[in-house]
Amino acid sequence: MSKRLAEVAKKVGVSEATVSRVLNEKPGVSEPTRQAVLTALDVLGYERPSKLRGERARLVGLVLPELQNPIFPAFAEVLSTALAQRGFTPVLCTQTDAGVSEADYVDLLLQQQVSGIVFVGGLYAQEDAPHEHYGRLAERRLPTVLVNASIKGLGFPCVSCDDTVAVEQAMGHLLSLGHTRIGILIGPPDHVPSQRKLAAARAVAAKAGVALDAEQIAHSLYSLEGAQASAMRLLEAGVSGILCASDPMALGAIRAAKRAGLGVPKDVSVVGFDDSALMNLIDPPLTTVRQPIEPMSRMVIELLVNQIAGKGLSHDELLFEPELVVRGSTGPVPTPR
Known about the structure:
The protein folds into two domains: about 55-160 and about 295-320, Response regulator (Rossmann fold), CATH 3.40.50.2300; about 165-290, Rossmann fold. Helices cover about 40% and strands about 15% of the residues. The chain has helices spanning about 1-10, 15-25, 30-45, 70-85, 100-110, 130-140, 165-175, 190-210, 225-235, 245-260, 295-310, and strands at about 60-65, 90-95, 115-120, 145, 160, 180-185, 215-220, 240-245, 270-275, 285-290, 320, 325.
């Protein structure tokens, strides 16, 4: 406490006694000095006493990796609505090419004295990514919830779509159509949801008695362009169906097929993941596995609000079952020529 008083006093240029009067809401301090002391607390990374947070304590950070993938705006919309219904104001944070990182946003949100943070699709799901900023949140015991799988040891509650069920549904669909040589197009090797999808695909293939060789597995960035290049390698390996880890990746696979002179689903079937906006309007409409965004989001906010209220909760990962949505991008395995 004395160290904090000294640092804040030095930062503002006032006595430690003045800082103490502000923190304890004692009279005898001008409003400009009071605000300067509170700002210094924010800048130095100290938490304001709860009684001094005011409305700022009703802020909740929503940290997303991007907005180009439609699944992230979809989550943001539902989460924001659920927060507003609980009396909280969402602060939307998306990483940019200009270099605003997830760690930068954590620092900014801590300065704003947010009540909690929700991460959707963040670095917590990548084993080789930096995780120091999560440690700062844990040290401060700031209410935090993660969406869709995290690495072990972070200690935050997590709400996820069940990747195993998703792959079982998608591969089961392709197998039922006669496809026995199926390609798996997933994210980077250190990405936990991708690891889960690959493990599930291997299990399904083994149970069905079909091969899943190394050449049938391709890793890619979560982008249309990266997926297109990776899907081309799968097509060269002779797959007749491709299971993708996101809808934009599936669009990349469809583009690769068309560039190779193949018809979808005449020559190759493609399955996405998420059921993002407008996937039923592309040509052909995309068969995909739908994430249950609304129930997942409601659970995320329930967990967050319970933490803010100081209620105990389990830190086990909560899994939600997805739904296969069959459209026009999948069809029977092509007849050998």
